[in-house]
Design brief:
Strand content: over 45%
Structural class: mainly beta
Helix content: under 10%
Shape: globular
Length: 709
């Protein structure tokens, strides 16, 4: 894996506009990428807003998991509920869940459907992934607190075909196909297809199973038996480039289908044997870009999409299972112990985004952006006669204004911005009001909030630059948090928006001598969050519900060092400390809060990773390459619930995690063909993650790739 670090900057108006055109950027343009070091010109382009990124194309022949790559970057941690296709939570600088948003080419990933995640995106269609920490640039135009992940797809200028197939442990299969063909008249088509399947039938260690001889439950090993996962994503882009009326105009059609068995809830001893969830989504989108739009020095980027998303959760088995796979007859459903159900959720999603960028000169630029996100929530049940259908509506408008300047021949870069957030709700559901709070929030409501901030970067010397940023940000709850997901998450219609004051300070630099390059980066951050939104287990069946914590303070430090020798040996090491604590001294009734200054539960607070890769070129023939590598991850133990509850010796803890991996990749004919073997959890450690749910043990994955251009 090649880990990249990217920075924002500006050189000339022409360079900035070309970058924006190709990568959907605004005036805070991503101008260059560097692998092992930075030239002086590149360092002059570095801006105030930093972003870590992963070059996917350089490792596309060897990887099968995007989440695994992202999990090893500085300040980022991914926690999964199980194997392939399981729910996961990504945190950046201590903020997680919906505080972090996902985009594809600057457009929310939700446009592809609720079933699309990092787990099932076709790797062959991705060029690189950008991970924004701290202040997020205005061109993404979203209400985020912790950061954003932007997946940038390939935008090659030539025809190509990229095909790969992989097979791995636990009956796992993955296949990707992507390509591009440019006709003589300029019409370009880009088809993509990704298929993933796994039984996820790994061994579960230390699960409680009834022992007749002992007359009690004893820890045992059992195989998962109801955790099949299948996903399919097909996409077709068609359009033209470099016309007098458009720099780019593309129409995108996509289809996504996910079938997922449900094995457990958020409580591991709650075993599910028949309930499942199916979803499918169609989407259509338009994307238009033009520089000198209507007038000189004005650039425009416009997009519009609509998604038809339909999910069905079926829970009609008259059974109650245990880890032996045995069952007894039951009169209640498996998920929450209530009536049998076959629940439908239709969530049509409309996205509209507009970005205008005006340049007064090469040093001064103004950006205006607007985003609309409108989500419906039409729900009904085929079986549960007590369920009350409802059609809720969730819409938000975000308007951003930014002024950017480059001074002192590029040694200083500043950005100033304001955002207006408008949240509109129409709540019609009324069932389970004693849990969801719908009796208090039913009806129509509109809220308005203002945010803003600034960022600066100054180069002290070629090997040292400092940067800082401040933002008062607002995050509006997502439909998943407000309205639940129909399977394992209750609605909470009374959720309030999060508000946060964020301060980030960092320094970075590069030393290069001969064939040796060393890059370093260190950052510190401080966040004060009001109405912090986090999930908590709501009942004995393991259902989740998102709730507001009145005040949370987060502070942290992180650092990374990278070493490269002659583009053959790469070594990367990083460490992150993220201290998130309850900052609410008194409860609503005026009594002291027992959780004051406690760590926020179920959150890793100290972790590190390291990896090394060595490449042998022209080993067997000219143009071939053999790369061998190893990676290591460590996560300190942390409490599952608030520290103040219970005795220290009986509190539930997520154990310390040590993970070692190894991989080897051989490519020939200048990367036209490649074959790889990857081993995760090499030492077969028992690893727990989100809500102390067990992850797979040792796993192997082999992959073959063909790339033609």
């Amino acid at each position: 894996m090649t880990v990249l670090t990217m920075w924002f900057g500006t050189t000339s108006w022409a360079d900035a506009q070309e970058s924006k055109k190709s990568q959907m950027r605004d005036s805070v343009a991503l101008d260059n990428v560097t692998i092992t070091g930075k030239s002086k010109t590149q360092r002059l382009r570095e801006g105030a807003l930093a972003v870590n990124a992963i070059d996917i194309q350089s490792v596309a022949g060897s990887i099968h998991s995007l989440s695994g790559l992202i999990d090893r970057t500085t300040g980022v941690k991914i926690r999964e509920d199980g194997g392939l296709g399981s729910d996961f939570e990504l945190s950046i600088n201590g903020m997680s869940g919906s505080s972090v948003r996902y985009f594809m080419d600057g457009i929310p990933l939700d446009a592809k459907g609720s079933g699309i995640t990092l787990a099932n995106l076709p790797i062959s269609m991705i060029d690189h992934i950008e991970i924004y920490k701290g202040v997020v640039p205005t061109w993404l135009n979203s209400d985020v607190l912790g950061g954003a992940v932007n997946i940038v797809t390939q935008r090659k200028k030539q025809n190509y075909l990229d095909v790969s197939y992989g097979i791995g442990s636990f009956h796992t299969h993955q296949g990707d196909v992507s390509g591009q063909y440019i006709f003589k008249n300029g019409l370009t088509i880009r088809p993509s297809l990704g298929i993933s399947y796994s039984k996820n039938d790994y061994r579960m260690k230390d699960v409680e199973v009834w022992n007749e001889e002992a007359g009690r439950y004893l820890p045992s090993e059992r195989q998962r038996f109801h955790d099949d996962y299948f996903s399919l994503l097909g996409q077709l882009e068609a359009g033209v480039s470099d016309k007098w009326w458009a720099d780019e105009f593309f129409v995108t059609l996509s289809y996504n289908k996910v079938n997922k068995d449900l094995q457990t809830s958020q409580v591991q001893n709650h075993v599910i044997g028949m309930a499942d969830r199916q979803s499918k989504a169609w989407s259509v989108g338009l994307r238009y870009q033009k520089k000198n739009f209507l007038t000189q020095h004005l650039d425009a980027s416009l997009s519009l999409s609509h998604t038809w998303d339909h999910a069905i959760t079926t829970d009609t088995a008259q059974r109650k299972y245990n880890w032996d796979g045995e069952w007894i007859k039951s009169q209640r459903n498996e998920l929450n112990g209530r009536a049998f159900s076959r629940r439908h959720y239709k969530r049509p999603l409309t996205l509209l985004r507009a970005d205008l960028n005006y340049s007064f000169s090469e040093q001064h630029m103004l950006n205006l952006s607007y985003a609309l996100n409108r989500t419906g929530n039409d729900r009904w049940d085929d079986t549960d006669q007590t369920f009350q259908p409802a059609n809720d509506l969730f819409a938000k408008h975000i308007i951003g204004l930014a002024y950017n300047q480059s001074l002192l021949e590029g040694r200083m870069y500043n950005t100033f911005f304001l955002k207006d957030y408008v949240n509109h709700l129409k709540i019609r559901q009324s069932d389970l009001y004693f849990i969801t709070g719908s009796q208090k929030s039913a009806g129509t409501s509109t809220q308005n909030s203002i945010g803003g901030g600034l960022g600066t970067r100054f180069e002290l010397m070629p090997s040292l630059a400092v940067k800082g940023s401040y933002e008062h940000s607002v995050r509006l709850p997502l439909a998943r948090e407000l309205l639940g997901n129909g399977t394992t998450i209750y609605a909470n219609t009374a959720l309030k928006p999060e508000e946060s004051d964020n301060l980030n300070i960092g320094l970075f630099g590069t030393f290069q001598t001969g064939l040796h390059t060393i890059y370093y980066e260190a950052n510190g951050f401080l966040r004060h969050v009001n109405n912090y939104i986090q999930p908590q287990i709501s009942d004995d069946e393991g259902y989740l519900q998102y709730v507001n914590e009145p005040a949370v303070r987060i502070k942290g430090l992180e650092g990374e060092v990278r070493y490269d020798w002659d583009k053959r040996l790469q070594v990367v090491a990083n460490m992150s400390w993220q201290d998130a604590r309850d900052n609410n001294r008194y409860k609503d009734d005026g009594k002291p809060s027992v959780t004051y200054q406690n760590h926020v539960p179920n959150r890793p607070w100290l972790f590190a990773s390291a990896e090394a890769h060595y490449s042998f070129a022209d080993l067997l023939s000219k143009g071939d390459k053999l790369t061998v590598g190893m990676d290591y991850q460590w996560v300190h133990w942390f409490y599952l619930s608030w520290e103040a509850y219970g005795l220290p010796e009986t509190k539930a803890r997520i154990p310390e995690k040590h993970l070692l991996g190894a991989n080897v990749t051989y490519s020939w004919q200048n990367h036209r063909y490649s074959i790889s073997l990857d081993c995760q959890n090499l030492l077969d450690q028992t690893v727990y993650d989100n809500y102390k749910l067990q992850k797979p043990g040792r796993s192997l994955f082999a992959k073959f790739r063909l790339f033609l251009q």
